[in-house]
Structure formats: C-alpha cells, structure tokens
C-alpha cells in the first residue's frame, strides 16, 4: 500500500540566455529540489530553451491578491512627476 | 456575496474578456468559467497523455534509427504537453491527483481518436499528418484564449507541434515513393484515419452545446464546422502530392464557395467511441491505469528518500 501522498508542486524559472533574467516558465511536481531541476530540464528545455534553471516550491511564494490591487498600487497613481514627460522643456533642448 | 454583487462582478468580468484582457488564476471568475476551463483543459491534458499510447506501440519497431529518434521525441513532447496543461489546470484549484482520478475512473474524457488501433507503421505517418494536423487547427486559436495559463501553455505546445506533423507527412511521402506494397500501406492508413480525423474537430455546429459560451470566453474562435472545412481544404492538396485518394466519393472542389464539398460523417460511430465503445477504449484506459498504479512504489520511494535527505540536513545543522 502506498501512502498516496502527492509530490509537492514547484515553480520553474528559466534564463533563456545570459544577459536575460530568469522568467517563469510553468510548474511541475517533484519529490525534492534535485528532481524538480531534472524534471524542469525535461519538461521545459527540450529544445535548448535555457542556460539556467531555478526551482522553488510553490508554497514558498507569497502572492499579492488581485482583489486588493486598488489599495496596493494606488500610491503610484498620482505621481506623474516620476515620469519624464511631466517636465516642460523648450523644443530647442534636444536629447534630454 | 449577494446575488446582485455576483451579477456585477460577472458583468465586469465579461467586459474584461471582451476587451481582450487576460484572466489570471487569482482573479475573481464565475464558477462556470472555472469549471468549464477545468473540464476543457484537463480533457486536453488527458488527450496528450493517452495520445502517447497508440504511437508508443511503434517505437520499438520503427524502421530506422532516424524514424525511431523522431517518434520517441514526438511522444516525449506529448508527455511534456500533458504536463504543461495539467499544471495550468491546477492553477484553477484542482489537484493533480484529482485530475488523474477523473481520467482513470472514466469521468473525464479524452480525444476519441486515440481509441483507434495503430495497425501498421504507416499509421505513424497518418497520425502525424492528419491527427496532429487537425490538432494544430484546433490549438492555434487557443494561443489567444482568455485564461492566461492556458494561452501560455498553448503557445509552447503550438511551437512544438509543427515538427510532429512534418515528421508524419515525411513518413507518408517515403512510403508513397516506395514499393507498390508500401504505397498501399499508406493508402490503407489514410482510409482508416481520414474520417476519425474529421470527427476530431467536434460535432457539427447545430449539435455542439458549448459553442456559444466558448466563443464568448475565447475558448473557441471558430466553430467546429469552420475548423473542419479549413482542415479539409488544406489537407486535400497534400494528399494529391502524395498521390493518395481521400476515401470520400462526395469530395469535390466547389468553385462557387471556394471550398471542398465533402460527404456525410458517420456521427453514430463518433458517439459510440465517445461513449466508450470504440475499438481500444478499454485497452487505452487500462494501460494508463496500470502505468499509474505500477508506478506508485516509485513515487513513494522518491518521497521517502526526499524526506530522509531533508531530515539529515536538519540533523547536520543542529
């Protein structure tokens, strides 16, 4: 009789080439980190899509709640002065 | 939440999709959207997994090393596609074990085409050419579907799928340029796979119950009949290049519509296979269940090893 416990879920991040950041590629199940890396190689990089892989157990990720997006991202809404177009400059000033 | 509140949320939700915004897993969604996506995405994943079986049958008997590595890579891709789709489905709050349970108990369906047997090597050609051809037509519009994880999985699937169809067509081409017997084998495979491939694109529009809702959620961009016509129009000239005859005496070019007219599809056969009475339904499901159950000790052992390793690490730290 097996214990019927499911292997944990892992999130997979792949750097497609040096100079680029790791990007979320998807997820998979594996018994431990080492197996997650090997499975990630087979599932997500069968055609040389990556030069580096990160795996992290999904339960360790804390995600923001989209229902709270209003409050969470509100502070950035009224700060137009953080953008270059906020500042009035004469047309003669080039390349600024 | 009151009924009115739900209704308001639903209106906002439908408007987002109409604006081509994507829905992500943690966003609020109507229960029906969630359930429909779990059903369709898991069916899709199951089809990839069961779809490995008819071809797996020929890996050890491929006629050359070139054919063998290609078929092996194709079957491996199908496993990969199943895994992309399962994990995308899990973002909707259903576990992998529940998904497998639905497949193994027969509650969930998979594409009925995989319930037909693969009798000769030419079937590997016909499957790649026709079955993957029909699958591509079904799948390309899904790269733009409204649920983000599904759309992203489909982009990857579609990128990999075109090699599958080309390897199949090359097998057909080689057989058709071979001996008389080899060409007959190719014709026989076409005869057996043609009609099931047309059925793969789903019931006719007047019989399809989900079309309207699916169109709204962009789970569908074209109707089954439109997709079927597209498949026929693109496949007939490919059969001509092979020098093979499509087994439909009513098939002919219609100058007026700019499409091929075609004969009546045997929908009774389709429903029989869907209901479990196809030639290989029992065998396919049994093979899948056996693979899962016989692998239980491996999964348990891997988990036990992982637990032991992590305990050891903790002890060392102390």
Give the helix/strand layout.
The complex is a heterodimer of chains A (about 100) and B (about 325).
Chain A: E1 9-15, E2 22-29, H1 33-44, E3 52-57, H2 69-73
Antiparallel strand pairs in A: 1-2, 1-3
Chain B: H1 3-18, H2 31-50, H3 52-59, H4 65-90, H5 96-104, H6 122-139, H7 148-176, H8 180-199, H9 211-216, H10 224-242, E1 252-254, E2 259-261, H11 267-277, H12 281-294, H13 296-317
Antiparallel strand pairs in B: 1-2
Helix pairs in contact in B: 2-4, 3-4, 4-7, 6-7, 6-8, 6-10
Please describe what this structure looks like.
- The complex is a heterodimer of chains A (96) and B (318).
- Chain A has 96 residues and is of the alpha+beta class.
- Chain A has one domain (9-82): Ubiquitin-like (UB roll) (Roll), CATH 3.10.20.
- Chain A has helices spanning 33-44, 69-73, and strands at 9-15, 22-29, 52-57.
- In chain A, strand 1 (9-15) and strand 2 form a beta hairpin.
- The model of chain B has no long low-confidence stretch (mean pLDDT 95).
- With 318 residues, chain B is mainly α.
- In chain B, helix 3 (52-59) runs antiparallel to helix 4 and helix 6 packs parallel to helix 8.
- Chain A binds chain B through residues 2-7, 9, 26-29, 31-32, 35, 42-43, 46-47, 63, 65-67, and chain B through 24, 26-28, 73, 76-77, 80, 83-84, 87-88, 90, 95-97, 152-153, 160, 296-297, 299-300, 302-303, 305-306, 309-310.
Largest sheet of chain A: 3 strands, antiparallel
Which architecture of chain A would the CATH scheme give at its second level? Roll
Order of helices and strands of chain A: EEHEH
The neighbouring-strand order within the major sheet of chain B is 1-2
- The average pLDDT value of chain A, as a whole number, equals 93
Question: So what's the overall shape of chain B?
Answer: globular
The strand count of chain B comes to 2
Tell me the strand percentage band of chain A: 15-25%
Sketch the topology of chain B as an H/E string, one letter per element: HHHHHHHHHHEEHHH
> CATH H level of chain A: which superfamily?
Phenylacetic acid degradation B
> How is the biggest beta sheet of chain B arranged?
2 strands, antiparallel
Helix coverage percent of chain A: 10-25%
Low-confidence stretches of chain A: none
